[in-house]
Amino acid sequence: MKIFLSHASESKPLVRQLTEPLPAHVSIWLDRDAMAPGQRFDRRIRAAIERECDFVLVFVDEHALASDWVRQETAMALQRQVALQRTFVIPVLLREVQGALASLGLDPQETLYLDATDLSDAGIAASARTLAEELFKHCSMLVETLRNADRRRLLDDWAGELTEFQQAAFRWQASMQHSLAVLSGNQEAFDHVRDTLAEYNRVADRFIPRLALHRDRITAAWHDRRSLCEDMRDLVAAVEVDVYRGALFRLNEVLGALQRLADGGAATPEEIARLDTEKDALTQAARTALERVSADSADLIGDLARELED
Question: What's this model's pTM, rounded to 2 decimal places?
Fold first, then answer.
């Protein structure tokens, strides 16, 4: 975690006392201490606030209110806070000054600040402990926010690819609803079957090899929710075994018979009736498997999404 310290130079000794006890994993950006020779001060500060630091501590006293640098740094930090949509600016009050927060653009009604106005040795030590605790709390919240953002991305990737696969599968299954006599004798209907199959194969060829990857990512990200992980494993198995290698794969048997009829192959009415019966059974089995997987996936994705909101 990297912290930018905005303060007046007159207050530097006190700022050091308050921040020196911070844990070793907290990196401090203390104006000139963090600059290399020859760097432009204004550009380096902007880069630190906008790109490098996780939080900005603004140490507020009468010297800070008189400092153009503190005002500029606070303004930049507040802009960054709006962009991040999270706590980024943490004021630390060193001395009671009337209207100090408002003078720096901080809303006194909405801004939580740390009170470090007790300048006795015991007071400074207590303020240093409080500062460390507050930073730990905000850091924990930041880590959880980033973790949830990463989990949201994983969930969106999985849900998007699964939905695309399901839609392609439903379209192919639906294209087989007509009788074989209609499909083999109507070029437009036959072309529709062939086109939806080609689209399904395109989607499946990309999606099915990624099933294990999606399963492993989701179960790792939600490792503390055992029941959800089990549901994810069951769903992936159902997609691959029951749908892809099961009901939809068996539809290819119908496709072979349809192709022969479309090519002018001879078949008795009894044979066509038998094939139609088989086709209807297979298309219904495919639809049943798809509907079951769709319902299970909607429930699981909803449960995973609610975990991100809690």
Answer: 0.57
